[in-house]
Amino acid sequence: MQFLKDVWHEMRLTTWPTGGELVRYTGIVLSTIIMVAIFLGIIDTLAQWAFAWFINL
Fold this sequence. Notes:
- It comes from Aerococcus viridans.
- This is Protein translocase subunit SecE.
- Essential subunit of the Sec protein translocation channel SecYEG. Clamps together the 2 halves of SecY. May contact the channel plug during translocation.
- Keywords: Cell membrane, Membrane, Protein transport, Translocation, Transmembrane, Transmembrane helix, Transport.
- The chain is an all-alpha fold.
- The chain has a domain at 23-56.
- The protein has two helices and no strands.
């Protein structure tokens, strides 16, 4: 039971983000995911072309 009281106490000390911060951070995460997906897609396409070229030698 003491554990739950300690958890409750620590949760009250937590600083939660505001709505605007939450939206901004979500946008940052989503844009980062999209950029990484595009980068990996380009690398994958280049690797496919390279392997196809190598096999057709």
